Structures
1.
Amino acid sequence: VIDRYRNCAGVVFACALLLIGAAGQQLFAMQSEGAGADWPSVGGNAGEWHYSTLTQINPETIGRLNLAWYWDIPAPELAVSTPLVVGGEMYIATGYSIVRSFDAVTGKLKWQYDPQVRGPRMRISWGIRGLVYWKHHIIVATADGRLISLEARTGTPVWTVHTIAESENSLYISGAPRVFNDRVIIGNAGADFGSNRGYVTTYAAASGRKLWRFYTVPGDPKAGYENQSMRLAAGTWTGEWWKLGGGGVVWNAITYDPDFHVVYIGTGNGSPWNRKVRSPDGGDNLFIASIVALDEKTGAVKWYYQVNPGDTWDYDAATDIELATLMIQGAQKKVLMQASKNGFFYVIDRANGKVLSAEKFAKATWASRIDLQSGRPMETPEARYAAGDTVLWPGGAGAHSWQPMSFSPMSGLVYIPSIEMPGEYDDRNIDTKHWAAAGPYIPAPGIKMGPGEVPEDAGTAALIAWDPVTQRKVWSVQHRGHWHGGTLATRGNLVFQGRGDGQFIAYRADTGGPLWQFDAQVGIVGAPMTFSTNGRQYVALIAGFGGSGALAGKLAKQFGWESLSQPRRVLVFALDGSGSLPPPRLKAPLQFIQTPGFRRDPSLFARGEAQFHRMCFECHGVSAVAGGGGPDLRADAVIASGDTFDNIVRRGALESHGMPKFDDLTPEDSEALRHYLLARAAEAQTEAIQP
Ligand code: HEC
């Protein structure tokens, strides 16, 4: 099996669970500028461009770009977000939904706010992708489903609302809120972990008063449909779909369009992934894997475009949605652009949702093309893995994930952090009739996804400069490994991107020529931003390795980063900056725990392995090979003592240090987990997977 994966350049399976000649300025009339001195939201401006109009740092001056200041983020908080800066104050978000403010020039910490995320939702507290600024307030959405407005100056909470009900027990939040016209909107995540309906909710930004909610999939018909759109959607589902929730969570893409007074949401995959389970007689399953335009005042559907009708692969439409006005066939068109997870780059008319063009920006074997007449993909014969065990490109990791692309109206190009990674789809031996999710926060794809053996060198990635008008690649840079950072483009003719190997690099936006490089000493996943204060331009980045790509067993070790001992940092650069990093920490080889006389018990091992991949892999890594938030337990002395282990795992001795309490486990479960870890430690001696 492993050989086959290698022939396919690597396969990824479970990691996706969690978690683009430019035509020249004259062709582009923009509806708004990019970001200026301030950067108030993750995307920088309303169009979500990740583009700045600042030009002090440019190909001529970039040789003088150097570190101005840095700040060490304490472990185990994972750090993958984009900082905000407004009026010289910086705001950052990290794992466990902790928020901090700094003086953006000096790096002095001004305040920090810890929402104390505890309980079962703490289990998916590995990251949070950002914050939003609204009129002297910072709004944060916490992993456990709270939306909190903080006074920007002091970090004092002003209001809190619970956007997720206690009973919606697979849902959590990892995404950033967005604001428009004094309203704030937030969705949630969790369709890979149980049975719930996705939705977005809009609140008054000043008070937290609820304004409207839009469910993305229909609920139980007996309870009545919330609106006409849900009635319409119900006609595209079969069987008793409501029992499994349906999914369609809005975990990432939300973009406000001031031209049409709508909010676009990118909805997630169906839950579970396998359509045969959730909608046994087929159907498109609206509005999963769709881009939906919602009226900003009422949340009513204005139009929708389903990217993947009847999604059965985890090809959600949740990658960022960016707005532009492009010259298409001689006419200016207001369009939205998405480099979708499924490998196609979509240009869609914002007036009506019609697909104007869609071409492959990465390898995609599930469909040959998108039919522009119907807007539907032309699926290949093997796409729905009718024969079981099928390898398709892309896999659940997608050809593009949540790491944002950037759009430069100056070059006319979109800069996509793309991934090339197949996935294995197999639904043989799945009981599609009586299938049930095993419990909240437990991977529930409805296809077979064991812990598997993904080779360490699986997958590749590229930074692709894509022309959205001609739908062609203009230049690209190939990267080793599959998990890298989002991009930033500037009017200074620059594109910045951090790599999984820790290099932070600037390229010429027009040609892709590399101009500048900085060693961050840790893998980079977050997207950089830029701001200016007192006439000086800065570039800021959060360096740290996390997210779903850092979880997948040996893949986690592609770059050798290991969880707790790796740094996570805020890095801020300026021309003639005089800062420097301390020397890199030496990576000590892991000392795997040896238990003399240890005998592996196959049934205990199997029980422990199953438990581990239900509850622990999100932080301690697939197959107990850690790369994310938690330590590598194979090298942890506590696994030698049943009492100590139990105290930590079932009684929550390390809860305040980011290790959740699992009080629903039995002592026997705990012992099985420990046995599994001891066996993995013994095996580690013979596996060549040392970082
Ligand atoms: C939300 C992330 C997360 C999840 C999920 C998680 N852990 Fe942890 N775990 C951590 C972190 C972070 C630490 C390190 C805490 C510290 O010592 O600072 C840790 C520490 C531990 C330790 C102690 C290691 C030491 O050196 O003291 C054990 C044992 C452990 N985890 C076992 C488990 C088991 C078993 C599961 C599943 C039942 C699990 N963890 C699930 C984050 C997690």
Note: The pocket of heme C is lined by residues 76, 122-123, 125, 615-616, 618-620, 629-631, 633, 636, 638, 645, 648-649, 654, 657-660, 662, 673 (CB under 6 Å).
2.
Amino acid sequence: MSHQIRPVSVRFIPSMVASLAMAGFSPAWGADAAAGKNVFKSQCALCHSAEAGDGGGAQGPPLRGVAGRRAAADPQFSYSAALKASNLTWDEATLNRFLAAPTAVVPGSTMVIPVANATEREDLVAYLRSPAVAPAVVAAPRPPGPPPPTATPPGTPEYLADAPGKVHSVRAQDLPKPFASAAARNFPRVAPAPAPADRNLKVPAGFRIEVFAENLEGPRKMLVAPNGDIFVATTQGGKVRILRPNAEGTRPQLNGYFAEGLSQPYGLALYPAGDPSWLYVAETNRVVRFPYKAGDLKASGPPEVVVAQLSPTGGGHFSRDLVFSKDGRRFYVSVGSNGNIAEDLTKKSPTEIAAWEAEHGLGAAWDKETRRAAVLVFDTANPGVGRNFANGIRNCVAMAVHPRTDDVWCTTNERDNLGDDLVPDYATRVGAGKFYGWPWYYMGDNEDPRQAGQRPDLRGKITVPDVLFTAHSAATSITFYESARGAPEAFPGEFSGDAFVALHGSWNRGFRTGHKIVRIRLKDGVPTNQYEDFLTGFIVDNNSAWARPGGVAVARDGSLLVSDDGNHFIWRISRE
Ligand code: HEC
């Protein structure tokens, strides 16, 4: 969009500039705060709020009043050490510079969303400096009526009962009504890791847990190569790390980068299985592959583009996972939604919807959500642009293919701001052409009140996911336990074919939940709607935890690896 075609009514006119300047604001001439608000909604609101009641997320600090204040000054938010030490003040030029390349201006910052387009950046900064986003001067009087529901009800936090073997069952028919409790803003403060003797982590009897690697800068997805080398996506740093375990499997003996300079790499897959010759990497909006042969510690050539663009829109959920079918003929890429609940979808007539769904599948959303909140599928030999495999999956952060059934599974983060126990996150088998509800419905025919009346045609067509987790757990990774016969650390046979899921930890829930590894028992590849704790002990209190488990993988020796991008460890769970 160019400046010229903008409606003049939303520009700053000189009299406004004068009065704003008196109030301490001096927007860049020509920058457009109203356009900036739209950029904010599509690229920032997932993690930030800027105005009271705008429904923005809380993975980042609230930006109300950010213009002119010191960096990292919100007392509630758990900032990175890097931003706290940055000594920046958010004047216009600094905001602009930071937004152009946040991790270049503040290396180590957990704000990883750059805005490449200079006009968009100026507009955003104008919006952040506009009166609407200025600090509140007086608290608004509370309107008459009953008090609003509280974010943290009195009672005992459920996490106190977390322990290996504890079974959880969240059932679609037992869910509370929307807004039964307030939308919490309870982002986990990452506490420093306790001294080794005080860690008190809990795994089932017969297992032990120890540090495998440390100081890793935000390790996320892990992938174990046939030769035992472990690839680790360093999403925030744009790198793929490689670790080679020592002979005992207890520590890395080699630790380096296989590839660098990537755009938020997350999903990793080797192809073909057995003796792979490529490492596929899912970046935030494309798929590339690097030449690979067993033993390589560095990519021997530049990346080759496999899928040039996953979705026409950027912003919002940024991680993409990638898995191959068992026969290697297809690969799947999960693409999370742009927004929390697609509030701004334009209206389509029933005929337009039918045409859209004929192209994109049942329940596919459009506009900024085109080819988002979906799992896409591609032919390996001829990827092209692929097609939507399943829709309505808000943020399928991770996938895994069941080694025996070939089912594609997703772990999904569901929507925010409907209350403490809505909407459950889930792990599910993903069926071809199925629709899982987002943004109009959840867990079957439960309509999201923020989309009320929009899609009566979808009633009865929504697939209920297989395994529901406590809402807001943040299910970020899934792996199926398989181990070669005779592997020294192989888990007992009853684990074979079961799933392990990493729960990264909540922010939108009054009582903290997640921050653990859970096990889903499967029988012939089919789960019940139950899961049980496997690794617990990271939650310190309702506001803080000392790990954010984000990845889970089975090492070649049969031990289970868990990555933590809170305190930057990889843990190893092995048999006692
Ligand atoms: C995926 C979540 C996410 C998205 C999307 C995101 N941010 Fe952030 N943002 C963060 C986090 C986390 C921090 C804290 C960074 C730190 O502690 O290093 C942050 C910090 C900031 C800060 C510094 C605030 C302070 O209190 O010092 C600004 C300014 C900011 N973000 C602006 C934006 C803008 C503008 C956008 C949209 C283009 C955006 N962010 C998109 C997560 C996000």
Note: The radius of gyration is 24 Å.
3.
Amino acid sequence: VSRAALIVLLFAVVACSRTETPKLNRPAIPAGWPGISAVDDNPWNAERAELGKELFFEPLLSNNRNVSCATCHQPATAWTVNEDLIMGTEGTRFFRHPPSLLNVGFFTSWHWDGGTTSLEKQVLAPLENPDEMNMRADSLILRLRRDAYYRDRFMSVYGKEPDMYGVTRSLGAYQRSLISARSKWDRVETGNEALTEVEARGQDLFFSDSLACSECHVPPLFTDLLFHNNGRWQWGDFDPGRSRVTLDSLDRGKFKTPTLRNVAVTRPYFHDGSAVDLESVLVHYENGGNGNQLQDSRIRSFQLSHSDRSAILTFIMTLTDTSSMNDPQLKP
Ligand code: HEC
Ligand code: HEC
């Protein structure tokens, strides 16, 4: 092969790899699940979602061109990252741990304090935050308009030049494709598999009145989508939680109940990443929280035997869905 032919060949390979990412299928929502909360002008659409996938993994979205959404939301760890407080473009640390983005389309508010009311609006938060991507929306649009590839892509999907409408709608559509509903627990629910004896024992404890885990971590999403003070927050903490949004002092220390789906791979835990493993989370609950005055009354101390403790953890493992993390259509 001549050198010229080789160069042509190389170009062809590069050109293909940028356009031929696996196609996205319309997300399949299991029976009995809540509906996806899409804004009226953004019903799920494969073309928008595919462009959204490209943008999600695109470091051009950050000021320094070194951080993409996926830096902090990595597929292998259920679209989060195993670091306590993650680093943005400037090497500074954001004060909260990134939540998993699997099933994020079913939520009704976003962020630990629920301060964001749609996935589309959410995009501006990491984009413009100096501790995350540190990128002004107007600079991003200029950058995308100067990029021949993205000009084309936006023209073909939206019929116009790149703008924030397209960026936010696309990222919203991609994130609504991130569905995790193929864990062992799901297969048991549909009658295709059975829990082992230990898993079943853990499930009984999880749903028991004395532990009350399922009061807030409600199936099928394993969150009630509401805000509670689970006794982690304490007076003097920098992060006030839900009261930042409601300005109600009784909401201090309340955080959005995180889903427990895939929690086996999303360490560290809690809004501030202060629990290094699931064992320490259980110890937190066994101790009945820290007893701050605003703590939810359902957080009460209880005693577990060594085997009970490992049964609960074994049950929580049944909520892990590696098929969504490995799904090629959800990755570039
Ligand atoms: C530097 C790390 C970082 C980057 C980059 C980043 N995020 Fe996040 N993400 C976080 C953190 C931390 C939170 C929690 C923020 C909070 O609760 O205040 C979060 C929260 C979210 C949530 C809310 C999840 C929920 O359950 O409420 C969504 C959705 C999200 N990010 C999407 C994105 C998108 C889209 C991008 C790219 C435009 C992005 N993130 C870039 C760290 C990051
Ligand atoms: C009153 C509601 C409530 C009850 C009851 C409850 N939780 Fe939680 N859980 C929460 C909230 C709220 C958080 C987030 C708190 C924070 O980040 O400060 C949380 C966080 C967690 C986390 C960390 C998840 C993550 O991604 O960071 C795990 C694991 C967990 N709970 C398991 C349990 C188990 C097991 C039980 C039963 C022993 C239980 N929870 C009972 C509300 C509750």
Note: Residues 211-213, 215-217, 228, 230, 232-233, 255, 257-258, 260, 263, 266, 269-271, 278, 281, 285, 296, 298-299 surround heme C (ligand 2) (CB under 6 Å).
